[in-house]
Design goal:
- By secondary structure, the protein is an alpha+beta fold.
- It is 24% helix and 29% strand.
- The protein is globular and about 55 Å long.
- The relative contact order is 0.13.
- The structure holds zinc ion.
- Zinc ion binds at residues 11, 13-14, 16, 48, 50-51, 53.
Length: 234
Amino acid sequence: MSQKRTEEITCPKCGAKGPFTVWDSVNVEDSPSLRGQLMDESIFVWTCPDCGHTVYVTFSTLYHDSTNQFLLFFDHKTGDKDIEDSPFPDGEAFEQFNKTYRLRFVHGINNLKEKIFIFEEGLNDIVIELLKYFIRNGIIAIQQGDGEEKGQPIPGNYFIGRAIYFTQMSADGEQLIFSIARPRGGVESHFALSMDLYSQCLQKLALDKRFKEDRNSIKNVCYEWVEAHLKTPV
Ligand SMILES: [Zn+2]
């Protein structure tokens, strides 16, 4: 079940007060509309009842998708680079989840959206992070997606200060589409990787002892997490 509480917000512009709904947990089966509100971030927007001024209110939430079997512990702060895995939580609230669930810590709204896209497509987020790591470090060369630049390889240093996010599968299901975010936000361009490359990476991952999946833990699978595991001696 989705859980919510009401907080009172004071308008920074006119001083009027009004209620704001904070969702402590979001269950997409119970409340499908909340998924869309998270994706367009309207769930975080409070509108002043008096003057119409809008305020972006951040809160942490637990995102639960039982169809696709994943649970995301979401925190708005992007700076948290803690990559230690935590044990599967005890307690009644978690008894319903069997150990096939993927449990993740997610920091930052764009990373939350990406995790949702990845798991809804049935993809492995460790493989996605590995592919992004290889691109950033020039191990996989990608090409500009569109316009006059099409076909030109993108140098690795291009990605300094830019973020890469998995966005969606192509309509034919043969390509993974990624977006490149500008340093100040907004999408700069897109590029695609083949499903073959993804599958090869997935096969290698299954044999790689450094990434042996411990299902009984919550992980913060991000660039730093992947880098730390790659640097673990085999
Ligand atoms: Zn106001």
